Amino acid sequence: MKINQILKSKGLKARGYRKHGKVTIIDTTEGKYIYKEGRLNPQILNYLKSRSFDYMPSFLNSENESYQLTNYIDDLDIPKEQKILDLIRLTALLHSKTTHYKEIDLDYYEKTYEDLDNNLNYLYLYYTDLITLIETKVYMSPSQQLLARNITKIYDTINENKKRLDHWHDHIKEKRKERQVVLHNNLKLDHFLEADSSYLISWDKSKVGSPVFDLYKLYQNHALDFDFETLLNEYERHYPLMKDEKELLFILISQPDLINFNNTEYINCKLISKMIDKIYKTEMLVSPKKSED
Q: d(Cα 167, Cα 286) in Å, to the nearest integer?
């Protein structure tokens, strides 16, 4: 269905359109609206409403329609350091309001363990093959030199994370319940607005799972932008993580990125530098002392 037809069905008339990433901002005679392709999960939205979590935009479309139409929210100009704290507090509230415990079978944690272990093994082999190829070069490019200088740190990070993973597995393999929450599943500052209230937007990937995965996604998106120790402490002030949850979070965020050398030399250097910076920053966060706190 064309956007004009959708607007007409809602009694709206467009005066102008503007693309912004994956959304279309529509100026109508009744105000501004946001249009986005994609169906939301009605079960999750209804569950959030039942739990009095109202920090979402109002949806004008019905549950069975394959698009989203919401009121435009004019985001306030707030320092990003303050905004990320507000986001982490709202995330803690989301998790608090939707907490429940799910019975799990023996295979549940085994699959998680095997998936993470396989990924670490793959990373080790990937970088081994890559550095072997690089070392055959008579002249290394700047990005290849940068990787070669840091390959021992990458190996050490993978090996240390494998130990951490085995330790986590020994503690949870007999568990039969998991704490689960509604996950936004794509947390970043671009998906958080503040106006008359706070709003989480872009719920396309929302699902139910361990609260760890929202924190992991936020770290993926902003690891080098903010002091994550401060953010994690603020989150746990409102919603403390269990010991096994914190261990799993540290395992997830400690995985080195996989760098494909398919970009320009400048981008390759930038990606490798970012990965190494992230490794060192994460190492400080997941030190044994902090894991025990």
A: 14
- CA proximity to 173, closest of 127, 104, 259, 124: 104
Query: Tens of pLDDT along 28-76?
Result: 988 899 999 888 888 999 999 999 999 999 888 887 788 889 999 999 9
Q: First vs last Cα of the chain: how many Å apart?
A: 54
* Contact yes or no for 158/123 (Cβ under 8 A): yes
How far apart CA 280 and CA 283 sit, in angstroms, is 5
Cα angle for residues 180, 174, 217 (degrees, 5° grid): 35
Among the four given CATH numbers 2.30.40.10, 3.40.640.10, 1.10.10.10, 3.30.200.20, the one describing domain 3-72: 3.30.200.20
Class of domain 97-292 (CATH, top level): alpha beta
CB 87 within 8 A of CB 192: yes
Domain-wise residue ranges, the chain: 3-72, 97-292
Q: What is the pTM of this model?
A: 0.92
d(CA 33, CA 100): 35
